[in-house]
Structures are given as C-alpha cells and as structure tokens.
Sequence to fold (1064 residues):
Amino acid sequence: MKKKVLSVLLSAAMAASILAGCGEAAAPAADAGSDAAEAEAPAADAEAPAADAEAPAAEAPAASGEAGKVLNIAAWNEEFKTRLTDHYPGYEVVDGTHGKIGDVTVNWLITPNENNAYQDRLDEILLGQESAAQDDKLDLFLVEADYALKYVDTDYAAAVESLGISLDETKDQYQYTKDIMTDSNGVLKGVSWQGCPGVMIYQRAIAKEVFGTDEPEEIQKLFADWGKFNESADKLKAKGYLTTASVADTWRVYQNNVSKPFVDGTTIQIDDNIKKWAEDSKDLYDRGCTTTANQWTDDWSKGFYPEGKVFCYFGPAWLIDFCMAADTEGSVAHDGGWAATEGPQGFFWGGTWICGCAGTDNGDLVADIMRKMTMDPDVMKDIVLKDNDFVNNRPVMEGLASDPEYHSAVLGGQNALKMFCAGADKIDMSNLTAYDQGLLGDYQTAMVDWMNGNFASYEDALDSFYKAAEVRYPELTH
Amino acid sequence: MKKQSKVARVNRWGYIFLIPFFLTYVIFQVIPLCSTIYNSLFENFRSGLKQIGPNFVGFANFAKLLGTIDFWNYFENTLLMWVGGFIPQILVSLLLAYWFSDPSLRLKFQQFFKTVIYMPNLIMASAFAMLFFALFADQGPVNSILVSMGILKQPFKFFASVTASRVLIMFMNFLMWFGNTTILLLAGMLGIDQELYEAAEVDGATSSQVFFRITLPILRPILLYVLVTSLIGGMQMYDVPQILTNGKGTPANSTLTVIMYLNQHLTSKNLGMGGALSVVMFAVTGVLSIVIFNLNKRKD
Amino acid sequence: MEENRKVSKGIPVKTRRVISYIVLIFFSLLCLIWFYILLINSTRSHAEMTKGFTPIPSTHFVDNWINLVNGTIPILNGFINSFIVSGGVAILASYFSAMTAYAIHAYEFKGKQAASAFILAVMMVPTQVTALGFIQLITKMKMDDTLLPLIIPAVAAPVTYFYLKQYMEANLSMSLVEAARIDGAGEFRTFNSIVLPIMKPAVSVQMIFAFVGSWNNYFTPALILHSDKKKTLPVMIAQLRGADWLRFDMGQVYIMIAASIFPVVIVYLIMSKFIVGGISSGAVKG
Fold:
C-alpha cells in the first residue's frame, strides 16, 4: 500500500519534470524560419567566433550557419527584450522568457538589479561559462554604466571586432558610449543603441497651476540652479505638491557632476557633490517637498499618476517612454501631461550596452543583433519614432531634432530632442568605477536613514555606508 | 547459542536501517560543517571576477568579526526582535490555552479558533513578509485605511522608523507562532490531573489562584522547552526581515539579523568571514541545543 | 462535576466567558484580516489600488493572474518546482525518519545509545551554519542550480525522527513484529508492511509538516537556485522586492502572494483537525 502511494507520487513527480522539460525541448523544433536559405548548415565549428579576429566583416544577415540552437541573453529587465521584439526582423515571441529568431531559440535570463542581484548572477554564469554545455553558454549580456568596467576589462566580454564588426561601422555612435566599453588595452567590447542624457520632466498641469505657465523655457528659469530649485519647491509645497517623488530622483544629477570617482584604487572617497546631495536632499525632505521612497517602488511611481501630486522626475528618454506607464489609462504620460526642460544641472542616467560573450556559439547572430539594433539607421530611427528613445546615432538624432514633424506624445507634443542632443555631447563618464552600482545603493540607503532621523548626523550615516560597502566589497577601505 | 546468533543477525538490521540517515547526515551536514570551519581560517573572497586567496590567516577572521561592534549590534537586533515577539506570544498563548482547557468556561467553537490561530504558522514566511511590505507601504492599504478613518492625518512611514520596522517584525513573529505555542501549552494543560483542580475548588481557590499555583508550576518543563526552541528559532531569524527590508536591514541596520549578515557574506562570496560567522553561530546554537538535549533526555 | 464547580470569589463565570470570546475573536481577526486584504487586493487592478483601499472585491482577479503568468516570472515552473521539492522532501523525510526511528526502537545493538543521543543532539543545529560548506559541496558535486540538493538531505531529518520515535514508543507493540518474524518475513518487509501501516497517522502528519516546511523554505533555495526556471516559489516571491520589472503592477504582486499562500491554506483547512492534533502529539508526550 505504502509502496504504491510512493511509486505513484514518484512517477507523478517524474511526469511533471518531464513535462517541464518538454516545454523547452519542443521549442526549437518546428519553424523553418524567415531566412532559411542555408538550412542544412552543419554544426561543425562549434567553437567558432571569439577567437578568430579576422572573420570577414561580411554584411550577410543572420543565420549564416550558426552552430548554436539557443541564444542565451542575460538582462535585468525587459527593456532590451521589448526593443528586440519590436525592431529586430524575424524575432518572434514564444512566451514571457522565450523568443525565436529563425530556428534559434532566444532564452532570456532576467534577474532584477536590486541589491546587486544581476551582477551576482552574471558573475556566476560567466565563471561557469567554461564548463557549461554549448546550449547553456551565455551568448550575450547587457551591462550598465555603473558596473560596465567590471566586465569590459575581462576576457569574458568578446571584442566587438572579433565578432566581425569593423570599428568604422560604429562611427555614428556617440563617443562616450564607446569610451565606456573600451578596455584598458583600447579594445571595444560592447555597443549600445541608446544615449541617456537626462532632463527634468515635469507635469504641465501643476506647472500651470503653480507657476502660471507650462512653457519649458519659462519653467527652466525657475529651476535653473539648486537655489532656484529650492525656492520653487516651496511654492509647489504651498499648493500641496511634492517637487520630486523621492530624494533619489536628484541623485544622478549630483553624482554626474562630481570631480573624483567613488573609489581611488581600493579607497572609497566621497566627493563634495555627493555630500551636497545628502545635505540638500535632507533639507528638501525636512521641508516636506519630497519623500524618501526608494526608486522603482510603488510609492515612488505613484507620481506617474495625477493622484501622486509629484511635480517632476529626473531622467533620460528611456524613463519617459519605458517606465512612466504611458500605456496605462489614467497616467499622466497616457494623457501627454509631461514636458521636459534641462533642470539645474546636466546629467546622464543609465544606458544599456550589449556585450557578446567570449565563447558564444552564435557569433554571427550576436553580431547581427549588434548591427541591427545599434548601427542600422533605419532601425534606429524606427526606435525613436515608435518608442521615443534617444538612440545612439548622431545623424539620426540630429535629423529628428530639427524635424518639425517629430514630437513626443508623452511630452504633450514637445520635441525635446535638441535638448537631449546637446546633453549627449556633454556626457563625460571618466569618473566611473566598477563599484558604482553597489556603492551608490549603499550610500543612498544610509543617507535616507539619516533623513528619516535614524542617524543623528551625516557622519553616523557615512559610517553605516562604509560598513555596508566593505561587506559588499571586502577589498575596499576608507 | 543458536538463538543468540539469530538475535544478533536480526539486530544487525538496526545498523542497516541507520545507514541512510547517517550517510546523508555525514555527507550533507558534517562535511559541510567541517569545510565551513576550515574556511573560517582563510582569507578568501572575490573581487569583481577575480579570486583573492585563499590565504591562511589563523583566527584573524574571528578577531575581526568579534572585535568590531557590527556583529554585536546585529546579535542584539536579533535577540531584541525575538524577545519582542516571544513575550506577547507566551503570555497570549498561556491565556488562550488556559481558557481552552478550563472546563468551567465550556468554550464553544474551540476547533474553529484553534484552526484560525494556528494558520499563520503554515504561511510561507517570505510571502507573509512580502504581503506586509505591500500592506504597510507608505501608500499601501493600511495607511489608506488609517487615513480614511481619520486616525492618521498623513501616511505613516512604517519602514522608515526603527521602532515601527522592528515592531512589525516582532508582530509577524508573534502572529506566526502564538497559535503553535497555544496548542502545545494546551496539550500540557489537558494532561494535568483533574483531581488537582477539584481539590483546589473544594478549598475555595479563585481561578487566578488555580492558574498561578497549580497550572504554571506543572507546565514549567513545557514552558522551558518552548522557550529554548523559540530562542534557537529566533537566532535563525531571517526570512521576514530579509524580505521586508530587501536584505538591507533598514532603517539604519536596526533590523539586520545575524543570519542576514551571514547571507551578505555568502552573496559577496566572502568565504572567510562567512565561515567565521557560521562557526560562531554554530557555537551559540550548540550551547542552546545542549539545554534542549538535557530536557529531552529527562523526558525520555 | 463541572456543574458543581462554583467559584466563590473572583469574576463570575459568565463574565469570564464573554471576555474570553471577545479576546478569541480579536485574535482570530488579527490572524485573518491580512488574508482578507490580500484576497481583496488580488482582485483589483493597479490603477484601482492607487486610489486607496476599499473592502469590496473588484473584477480583475483573472486579469491579474493572466498578466502574472504571461510576465517574466515563470510562476508555473515555480509551482512545479515547489511541488517536486516539497513532495520529495515529504516522502524522503517521513519514510527514512520512520526507518531510523524503527532502528533505534526495535533493535538492540552496540552504539545504539550513542546513535540516539547523536540524533537528539544535532536536532537543533540550524542548516544556516553549514550553508557555506553545503554550497561548496554541492558545487563540487555539480548539483548547483538543481533541485536535488534541496531534496536528498531530507533523508536525515532529526526533528521528524524525534516525533515518529515518540509515536512509535506509544503505539508500536513489538509482539506484532515478532509475529511477522515468526511468519518468516524479512526485516525490511516487516518494516514496510507491518510497521509503516501502524505508523500511518503519525507519518502522514509528519509528511504534511515536512511538505509545508519545504514549501515555505527560502534560505537554502535562494542560495542554490539561480536560473529562473528552476526557482521555487519563495525565491520568486523574494524577487518581487526588486520591483522594476513588474512595471509597478501591484495587482500581480498580490496575486502571486495569494497564489503561493492559498494552496497551503486550503489543504490546511481541509485537514485542520488532523494537523492541529499532530502538533502536540510528539512534543508533549511524557
């Protein structure tokens, strides 16, 4: 009797796991695909690209006999997936975490960024890359500026040229996007489709009510520097509005205007501007003009809706389009209620770079994705028109900036591209370190605790930051 | 003679039946314990994608761990949040169990009440914590209810206040365990000889006198058992504060428990410090286990 | 007997009864209200929730679920994984703990006292303190990022053993075992066909506890499982804290919490008598 139950349960469990396995196995079958010209390509040279740098930079699209049947992509959110779905020719959605390009299955390994989880996961995958089965090897991964250096300066990221892309093809990309991806030997290791100069994005309705105008030029005068910013904040407060959704919103603006990097060798250093962020923010918070919510939380994103009563956010083009709930009914973005202006200081935020993995078995496909998604002017322009992203292609952006036809629906018809273009040229990423993402998270956590009255002084909060940072990165000191 | 050897042959099965347990235990617990202890003597971590160490450093990790205030702070957090959950838990459990077992009260729907109060114990702690995080968010339903009822003027930021965050964690621990404790104590109370109560009645004792003079003293071994197992469980407090604060122990590290600290070392691949912390925790729970062990032995 | 019971001093019985009902109802509500809010909010859309809480359910229960299933968290895999792990743990832990208990209970051999003492001594050693070595071990055994290291160690479950041994002492008479031996049954068969059926009530309770314990376990799976498709439910729940990929849809957050809590609640409500009785059976004996 007992045995029977046991065997029934065991076989049920096995059946379940077989079923689960089937879902994956069944995927690559079927579908001869769009460009199935060279169907019978034998899977001979499994160890292809990475190594041989002299692979000809042929313009042959996709499927020139790729060995791998699975393209594994590591990312921290759905942004690139959305881009690929909408703009890469032949990409088909299978389910939430799978897609297909021709007969290659695209497998998305998405780990959210919070608390360094994405980097931790990526580290494990890359360190296990050698011993992984061919179809489990990572082929492509995405990185952000905050920790790009950590991966770019290793052999895990394949040189762009080794994938068969000539540097000349990247000539239209903004220089800073290439600087970040260049390792200490001067080799380019990754490319991006976007630039991320940031602007101040404010609600037109609130601007009209409080300041009597929603014209970007007029609003800019009221927020031209931090002093004016603070004055205007009080006016907003008087009418019951928050200036920003969270103290974290202005972080990038201060951090990008630092004069020294977060880490010098292995010593953590605090730039004056970073300290100023903490002090200004505490002041702003104490006056009731903002909150201490974390970014990406429900409390932070309340301001995407009119009920949130938030005057402005700071962000680049991808924030406006990708994050501000433009397709949700009732949101400010849905009704085109935002407008953009430069704000107190120029800054950039984020940006996503595509890196090919050394040892990928889908080298040609990776190269084609890079070409299509970051270099093809038609695709680039399409991304701007459909998604209002700021793409990494100077001629396309400058063309659209002066195009009277172009306007952003979310920004109530404003063409903010000129503003973005000017910003993109000024971006200087020389103060980046490999530790930024972990450190800035820990710094903000500690400072927010201070603002909430849980530390007596800035110095106490700083101590707490050092503690957390040194647990996270045992090699660092202060 | 013949019979004896047959008995011996049968008894050999005692060893055979013990093999799965001990084999598994040695492989998955003893060996890991040894390698944890071994690791605690080395400097061994990862910097980015580069491996540093292992370099033998003797007891330097322990000195570093116990020599800085951090570990003691987190230890204190853990104990404090355990005590704050345990005291109401034991008081409420005693009261409820006493009522359930009091024949003169003749409470109805006992099964219903027991079922309800035990339920939170079965809930996934991580889901429960995530639920509380959503419910007590600045703009969450709890604040929304309190504001609309006029109790609060504006939303209260639970997770920005040291006291509120800790109290929430204590409260969740209380909620998850008081039903369990009630049922344990109730079983103990029902085991008390009814004649004792009857005799007390004859002597004209009040119900509170009966409780303090008869019930409590007899329950002492069970209470001690509940105390020590709860303390051991409390030292391992992890799921609730980890999810509630996303592993950061905010605000101001006031909800960071020892095991969360261990988890931080494990995720940053600092095997040396992680090992040292594990060994210290092993020693602490080891001492507590000896207490339990002696209790169990007495019961056997 | 109870009728004769007259409390001469102190508060009258009726008042005490009313007070105890009030207190009991208070604590019951305290236990239930969170699940009520959870249930309500899992039927509401994100936009509705931004407008504040109302106690009346809305109509988006199915929408939320569909959004969740079509999202990036492979929730169905989570369910399957959790079932495989918890089911495996329940079977292994109860079966082998019964076997271990039987070994200690039914046989006389050298070292028996020591073995029994050892198991009792390690009963309270938390898994966290060996986690570091455990991860290293299973990485070496190439079992990293698989479900096996979460299942196999359940063979050695000291707490389950402890409860089953208590039950065995009270309910298993050796004469039955002797009779089976005289009939020529082997020891292993005797255990399976005589001992286990007698132990059925206790074994099933322990299976439920082992299942629930494993279903709810977060610490070890979070360290071992990395790929999305292999994660168990608690690990997926924890990911909700890193909110940005849910695009701030609290409807999905609530429905996912509900989906991982309510299966256990329903099973519990069906079997509550059984379970509540089982809690005290081991600990309080003797």
